[in-house]
Amino acid sequence: MTYAFAPAGADALPLHVIDASGLEDWLASVPEATRAWVTASGFSGGIGEALMIPGAEGQPVAALAGFGTAATRRRARFVLAAALPKLAAGTYEVASGLPPEHAEVEALGWLFAGYAFTRYAGEAPSARNLVAPEGVDAARVEALARSEALTRDLVNTPASDMGPQELEEAARALAGTFEAQIEVISGEALETGFPMIHTVGRASTRAPRLIDMRWGSSGPTLTLVGKGVCFDTGGLNIKPGSSMGLMKKDMGGAANVLGLAQAIMELKLPLQLRVLIPAVENSIAGDSFRPQDILTSRKGLTVEINNTDAEGRLVLADALALADEERPDLIVSMATLTGAARVAVGPDLAPFYTDDEPLAAALAQAGTAAADPLWRMPLWPAYESMIEPGIADLDNAPKGGFAGSITAALFLNRFVTDSPRYAHFDIYSWQPSAAPGRTAGGLGQGPRAILGALPGVLGL
């Protein structure tokens, strides 16, 4: 799949986007035969409705797509994509009815709807191509669609084919495409320089590593850090089977930062990009790390292990410490970190943390504009004592079960002390059931919002 718009001037059917509240006015403007066909078909302009309009010889000459009402659109995302499955295969060009302020998001949703994960079975959906709507930056939207496809593919691939080595290979392929530099730290250098990454991954037969990719030579500096736990058994605090079933997606943070990096590089943003991915598998063996072990991090902070299933913050902490040493203008970490975040906001929202008010406002505004919904969560200072066990500097799994996503974010915050701006995203990276523009399975959450916020935040 190319995730590209049909060329302008293609032999395309006109597509009329119909706001339900304006259907009567539209019907009054069309020939009587068309009006009779639409009325007899029961088309009302609701979200998810579509109708092919036949010509005199029965062949389609146009199509309608329901756009709902302002009230129903508040509860929907990618409205045109909801109508797309009911349209015949072919090429379409928006002829009327699509508000300019909705055009980019709706065009993106259309491209997203063409995604299918077919590596092991199945086939791509029938092609329904779209000419880029007027005023839409087609190259930008296509880049966003391709970056999302990369993220989804990485998350959807099972751990048998997406371990630390394969994640490294994906990063190397991306670096090769855009002439980025890449370094991978493993073995003794990892054990010495990044002891918590090594400790979490040492029990696996697939060696842990830290992937470090750089692109760009001028402009402000941005470092993305993504959790790359390719499978999480929970370690010695083993997960029950019901909780282990989706753990192939525990590298969703890595998949999201790689997708975001692809978009940044493809769009040639004038910045210096660094991507750090601690890639591990949290397994069980004779050399697994244990509850009540105390680890010394790269930053020198000691961490008491009270649950080996809270491993993501450990590997992120070492990577964040490295990122912080360079004092970039902005650090962003992304991770499928806590079940507490899902309890708080469900699967559809990406909670994020920052104590930088302008950065928070920019992210929230960009998320709304890009149909990439976010929800800011508090770095609540009163909970700092919950991550301080007394026997060590930090506790990786505070007792009590309260505020689990907040305490995880506070934990990570301790490893970013020198850089001016930092945001952490505790994402789900998974679509539980199919929705317009979103097949069930792996999902990008946050990258479009981050991308949209970068020009203002970094002064691009």
Task: Explain this structure.
The protein has 460 residues and is an alpha/beta fold. It has two domains: 13-131, Leucine Aminopeptidase, subunit E, domain 1, CATH 3.40.220.10; 142-458, Zn peptidases (Aminopeptidase, 3-Layer(aba) Sandwich), CATH 3.40.630. Helix content is 35%, strand content 20%. It is built from 16 helices and 19 strands. The chain has helices at 23-28, 32-41, 70-73, 79-83, 100-112, 138-156, 164-177, 187-193, 195-201, 241-244, 252-266, 312-325, 339-345, 357-369, 404-413, 447-458, and strands spanning 13-18, 50-54, 60-66, 90-96, 128-130, 181-186, 209-215, 221-226, 228-232, 272-282, 294-296, 302-304, 330-335, 350-353, 374-377, 394-395, 422-426, 430-431, 441-442. The strands form four sheets. Strands 6, 7, 8, 9, 10, 13, 14, 15 and 17 form a nine-stranded mixed β-sheet that branches. A five-stranded mixed β-sheet has the order 2-3-1-4-5, sandwiched between helices. Strand 14 (350-353), helix 14 and strand 15 (374-377) form a beta-alpha-beta unit. Helix 5 runs parallel beside helix 6, helix 11 (252-266) crosses helix 16 (447-458) and helix 14 crosses helix 16. The longest helix has 19 residues, at 138-156. The model has no long low-confidence stretch (mean pLDDT 97). Belongs to the peptidase M17 family. This is Peptidase B.
